[in-house]
Predict the structure.
Amino acid sequence: MQSKRTIVILGGGTAGWMCAAALSPLIRTGRISVCLVESDQIATVGVGEATLPHIKDFNDSLGIDEAAFMRATHATFKLGIAFAGWGSERYIHPFGIFGQDWGGTPFQHHWLRARQQGEAAPLEDYSFAVTAASAHRFGFPDGDTASVRSTFAYAYHFDAALYAGFMRDFATKAGVTRTEGRVVSVVRDTNSGDVTGLRLESGATVAGDLFVDCSGFIGLLINAVAPDQWEDWGDWLPCDRAWAVPSRRMDDVAPYTLSIAREAGWQWRIPLQHRTGNGYVFSSRFTSEAEAMDVLMANLATEPLADPKLLKFRAGRRPKSWSGNVVATGLASGFLEPLESTSIYLVQAAIRELMPLLMTGNDDPRARDAFNRAMATEYDRIRDFLILHYHVTDRTEPLWQHARTMDVPDSLKEKLALFRTRAYIESYNSGLFSPPSWLAVLVGQGILPTGYDRTVDWMPMDRLAGMLDEHRRRIASEAGIMASHAAALASYLAPAPAEMAS
């Protein structure tokens, strides 16, 4: 019989407590125990307030009540990300598809053919998520796949610190042990080099078999077993600083994150129930910290509630997030700026890839290799998608000139070439961002293909024009009867009778 294994997570915050919550069901099997070590003396980087639809799947898999979670974290709904100043027109990257794939051919080919004949509306008119988000409306997706209301998903904006606390309560109730203490040294086996324990300031040692490093940028454990391993992507993603500041709650709570391109980076605006999250991601090569702070504070939509906080980072990833018996997760594994709200998703991806491999043992190189390949794919595909936003631009400031003329990864070059000439977008089984996401950003920033799949020419143009018009009308009609986002929130998050009584 296999002996019971101890998994030790270093670091709380969103990454640490999400890992603990995800691992907690395994405690009931009697095969593992989970201990999380964190210190109240060490602050976490808690500015990630915008998420992707995958977070709903994560919460649902743990049996978390959505309304209770949203009340606890002051969450709002999110249908996509609006980009202002990135292209000639404002556009939205939605959590959903555009149109329908008639005849088995992706929608963009039908749309491009009709557009060339003057028979198509703007692409965004064929997205339910965009239409609803633009009108500040929200409703839940329909389970009937024949309905246009089934063609979108949603995520959340929430207070990251409150979410970490929510996950902490969930995990500890499920049997995860929390140990308070500051780690002063990492104890390693003299033969294998594996980590065997964490020595705390108190003198105690927390022993374990597998260690999950959620210690943030410092990467305390992964650097102990695999020091100085980092792929730097700063030339492709030059932003290396961010100012973050909360401001008063906005009266009209939009169901989307807003990203506004600025001279040396971009500004985010995230609506929560109780406040608005704001920040300016910028490159220190193209502006000073003082100038960036002035830009952010001058462009807040509501009054600030605190002094701005400066964060420093570097874009890139570790070539091997699992080394020895240490698995780096979150910021300890890599960092990609929050332009497309991917930080929490990458924690989820690490959890998803790790769970099936946990019982193979620390000494199985196949498990480590499989995990590292999967995480490399996740980071690399998100990297290309983020670079796309900067590279495909008409802005003229020095940062944007650099981004437009820089040599990008071959994988992105290929994607751009295939789309520009034949409107082709590769669909893959692993990695984030499906063809509709690429389509939204490419067209949103002014890239229109010169050709399309000619197999769509089988349909008479008058029939295609009619189908496009009917689809657009169905979306407008269905989105038009949805409640406002504010009303939907108020209705859904009203306290249950039991809660009101207590």
